[in-house]
Amino acid sequence: MGNHWFVYKNQKQKGPYTWTQLWREAQAGRIKPRDLVWNKTMKDWVQAAQVPGLISNVRKRNYLTIAVAVSAVFFIVLSGTAFYYLFFYTGPQLAALENDNETAQVEDPGDEENLNETETEIDDQPDNQFVSNQDRNRTENDSNREPDPDPEPEPEEPAEQTISFQGGTYTGPLKDGQPHGYGTWNHPDGRRYEGDFADGSIEGYGTMTFPGGERYTGFFKNGLAHGEGTMIHPDGRQVSGEWVEGVYQEENGNDDEEPDDEDNNDNEEDEESGDNND
Fold first, then answer.
1. What is the secondary structure of 160-180 as a DSSP string?
2. Given 3-state DSSP classes, what are the helix, strand and coil percentages for the chain, each rounded to the nearest 5?
3. How far apart are CA 3 and CA 217, in angstroms?
4. Could you read off the pLDDT of 142-186 as tens digits, one per residue?
5. Where does 162-248 sit in CATH, by number?
6. From 50, 62, 74, 164, which residue has the greatest number of CB atoms within 10 Å?
């Protein structure tokens, strides 16, 4: 590996680091698995998790920490459950009280008399208090009706993801593993784009900020300004109009306009006055 390493995180580049320094930063948790790293032997920036030997030990340490935490929670839950059943659980006492109440109600002869009176009142009610045949048929038809088919679920919007894209980092929705939709793209050289992506390309409407401070807002095609747009320079100058593949199309003026008739008349008068003087 190269002698010098660089780290790109939080839209800032840090370094250079030796391999030992880089490894210590990763062990301390200051370099995350998704942070980008690079040295002169590599063609492009890669995530720290893809560098052999850099993040593996950190993962093992994290797994051990998680296992210890889970064991501690499990022990606390078991201890709390045992403490509850030993000192606060009153289920058997409540069940015994309910059984005593039921026994007392069965042995009370007054309850049987009340029950007989209630049955007599129900028998004395007129027939119009019960469900009519028509209502009964309607209920049977409703029960035999086939249930409506389940409605089609609404399509879920793609969740935002972060991936490496054209040497930088893309955050936004994906389609077949490629940027597609509204997202952001940051490059280590200072470029930043926010806007539309289509099938893995910067295409549509958006804003691109360049390392020199220029900012273009308008339409893009294949990552270049293409269509109506405005370029704002750091000194405040603005250039608006039509762009074709990143090149501004200046409007050509007509330099071959014929002179006005008044100018022609003035020239003729000057020539006649010159002849008279001769």
1. PEEEEETTEEEEE-EETTEE-
2. 40, 30, 35
3. 40
4. 666 665 566 666 655 557 889 999 899 999 999 998 999 999 999
5. 2.20.110.10
6. 164
Cα–Cα separations (whole angstroms), residue 268 to 189, 260, 278: 65, 13, 16
What is the rounded CA–CA span in Å between residue 55 and residue 52?
8
Kindly report the average pLDDT of the chain as a whole number.
77
List the Cα angle 156/161/166 in 5-degree steps: 130
CA dihedral 230, 233, 235, 240 (to 10 degrees): -20
Measured CA to CA, the distance from residue 108 to residue 90 in angstroms comes to 28
Instruction: Output the DSSP codes for 198-213.
Output: ETTEEEEEEEEE-TTS
Return the amino acid letter for 260.
Answer: D
Name 162's bridge partners: 171
| Residue 255 in tokens | 């330099």
CA distance 264 to 105: 128
β partners of residue 204: 220
Sign of the CA dihedral 166, 172, 177, 178? Answer: negative
Residue spans per domain, the chain: 5-54, 93-144, 162-248
Task: Decide: 248 and 231 in contact? Cβ < 8 Å.
Answer: yes
